[in-house]
Model the fold of this input.
Amino acid sequence: MLPDSLARARALLENVTPLHADCGLSCGHACCRSLEGELSGMLLFPGEDAYYADLPDYRTVDTADGPLLICPGRCARGDRPLSCRLMPLIPLVRADGIKVATDHRAKTVCPLARQGKNALSAEFVDAVRQVGRILAEDEVQRAFLEKLTAQQDELKALRNQFRRGSHV
Ligand code: SF4
Ligand code: SF4
Done:
């Protein structure tokens, strides 16, 4: 069974999506496709692996950041892990509260991530903010969000460093 906070977070994004239309139609569902020979998957939130334990077609791989879900490339809406529901945004834990940002990990695959959150449905952005607030009230989920926030800051710093380097 999913932790209560995670179940509520997933429910908030059950039917609310980045665009009012199916964004996958324009990119061929790029975030659901693996590159040949590459092990790619979605990072699960703490306790989320329990949901997939008995689902055939899914497997998990342990990584330093937590279990990674390897999926069949197509899934029922209700089976999408939270990372997929949040794509291409991420809630960050900041000193002054939860902030919604574009996920730096999504920028290489998702055309919407390159446009920024202003291109997305306001309802979706708001739901992601609410997801962050719900998770931040749960000690375990909050710690995970803080880890993701630190990773996003590192990715941003690296990106900026690379940009500066490419201009010299
Ligand atoms: S979230 Fe981005 S990559 Fe995934 S289907 Fe929508 S537009 Fe494509
Ligand atoms: S779990 Fe579903 S939404 Fe997520 S990457 Fe796999 S097929 Fe796509």
Residues 139-166 form the longest helix (28 residues).
